[in-house]
Amino acid sequence: TVVANPEEYMKHPLQNKWALWYFKNDKSKSWTENLRLIAKFDTVEDFWALYNHIQQPSKLGFGCDYCLFKDGIKPMWEDDRNKLGGRWLMTLNKQQRHNDLDRYWMETLLCLIGESFGEASEDVCGAVVNVRPKGDKLAIWTGNCENKEAIMTIGQQYKERLSIPSKALIGYQSHDDTSSKSGSTTKNIFTV
Amino acid sequence: GKKQYDREFLLGFQFMAACV
Fold first, then answer.
1. B16 shares contact with chain A (CB less than 8 Å)
2. DSSP string, A150-163
3. Span A103-115, average pLDDT
4. What is the ipTM, given to two decimal places?
């Protein structure tokens, strides 16, 4: 009798189901019309099937974004699970599009789907990469900008995963401050 | 329990053909 080993044929389930979104800046359409859901997945295998199939961020046009969010959370400030939250923001220089962007984005995705931040992973809503002429941006969004402990855990581990030198600081900003800012910079609530 | 996967584990599946 041959007994099948489930390990050999079952896909590896993730803790969460995730949705990958794509934003393309078409000025003739509204912001929400430009945001498209690409696919959802909840296994390691299905993640890679999707990841291997789509363009790397460095190949996207200016004004485009990828967003990976937990299923049920829309990649916008207004979503109930985002509106009290904020983001760890990494601003890249132009050179880093060729050197770091794709690697950083993949590490970000692996941090999310692998639940790399322990208990603090529950605070994670998603991640965003913005491809922009002035410099690309990467961010991890969390659900409550007052959960300092979880936010700091996520920031410290994220920085470590991306091998950012400890003297290079990254900042956490609330969506409330980002959406109501008048200038081009938003104050950091936390830094690591 | 919580399904946590480290990066090496996840990377190990990148080029495996999906078989299910």
1. yes
2. HHHHHHHHHHHHTT
3. 98
4. 0.90
